[in-house]
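can u pls check wat happens w/ zinc ion
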Amino acid sequence: MKLNGISLNIQPEEMTVSEELDPHEVGDQHLMTSIETPMREGAFDLSDEEKKKEIEKHFRSIMHVLGLDLTDDSLKGTPARVAKMYVEEIFSGLNPENEPKVALFENKYQYNEMLVEKNITLYSNCEHHFVPIIGRAHIAYISSGKVIGLSKLNRIAQYYAKRPQVQERLTVQIGKHLQEILETESVAVIIDAEHLCVSSRGIQDVNSSTVSAFYGGEFEKKSTKNELFNYLK
Ligand SMILES: [Zn+2]
């Protein structure tokens, strides 16, 4: 496993930051304020169609303020395209209706070894800058008697990635969701990602990546962790 960035082993209780922090500091340091995605009340009062219309209007204003000519054939359709992409694709994971439906199967073969799904490609967006986070996730669990299709691990990871995110929150949200549906504490999630807000702007470090990890149940034991790291090599 590549560990050329910062390694973060997150304990949920350590994850809240105090309210006295300056919002600019929070954004620059990519801190998060809660494990739950901060949603306002009435987040789903508008339908997806209504949201797209509103976003289109506002994005058109942003382009206009930047000085772009919105009558140009190349730019004309951009506000509508961005609105559609936000609501239907890259931020579709904000809507609980899009949560993947998961069927559990009985673990008939009594396979109670570790199951590992490696190298799940993740595209998310930094909630502080709204630019991409591109990375890979490795997910592992030890079955408590129930298993899910491996593609579902992928789908659940994608669901949480399709929100404005902070990498640590993304890691924990995937881990906690899997603990719940798999009915086991023994879940591990490791994400290694590049943040374009770090590589393309700000400090412009093109070589750094950030590693975050969530370990529950058996994975808190060093021997189990080492077994996982062997699979990931
Ligand atoms: Zn950022």
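The radius of gyration is 20 Å.
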